[in-house]
């Protein structure tokens, strides 16, 4: 953003200055842009370590959510299979959370993974 402000400032001042100072201003602007580009290319290991750390922490949160959904589905299926023959009403009540967990698992898997 600084470079754009300097560029517009220099183009405005070009008509009021002599050609030597205009050339000097262009040279200064060019060297400032080159310096900014070289500084952005010389990032240290800390920057990349932080980026990868953020990536892996997000990935870990996603895998934790999927794991908890799978555990919930497993518990739901075990309860469902245990009570389906004896208590029909309880089996119907357990079917609703199982379906919700299945839909949440599919959403986690296909949207966020």
Protein described:
- The chain has 113 residues and is mostly helical.
- The protein folds into 2 domains: 2-41; 57-112.
- It has 4 helices and no strands.
- The protein has helices spanning 2-13, 19-41, 45-83, 88-112.
- α1 (2-13) runs antiparallel to α2 and α3 runs antiparallel to α4 (88-112).
- The two termini are 36 Å apart.
- The mean pLDDT is 77.
Write out key terms for the chains shown:
mainly alpha, rod-shaped
Radius of gyration: 31 Å
What separation lies between the terminal Cα atoms? 36 Å
User: In what range is the share of β-strand residues?
Assistant: under 5%
Fraction in helix: over 70%
Extract low-pLDDT stretches. none
Largest sheet: none
Task: Determine the structural class based on helices, strands and strand pairing.
Answer: mainly alpha
Helix/strand layout:
Layout: H1 2-13, H2 19-41, H3 45-83, H4 88-112
Helix pairs in contact: 1-2, 3-4
Q: What is this entry, summarized?
A:
With 113 residues, this protein is mostly helical. It contains four helices and no strands.
């Amino acid at each position: 953003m600084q470079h754009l402000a300097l560029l517009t400032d220099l183009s405005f001042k070009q008509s009021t200055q002599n050609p030597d100072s205009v050339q000097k201003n262009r040279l200064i602007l060019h060297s400032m842009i080159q310096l900014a580009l070289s500084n952005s290319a010389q990032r240290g290991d800390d920057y990349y370590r932080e980026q990868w750390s953020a990536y892996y922490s997000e990935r870990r949160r996603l895998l934790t959510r999927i794991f908890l959904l799978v555990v919930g589905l497993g518990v739901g299926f075990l309860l469902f299979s245990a009570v389906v023959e004896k208590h029909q009403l309880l089996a119907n009540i357990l079917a609703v959370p199982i379906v919700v967990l299945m839909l949440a698992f599919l959403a986690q898997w296909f949207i966020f993974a």
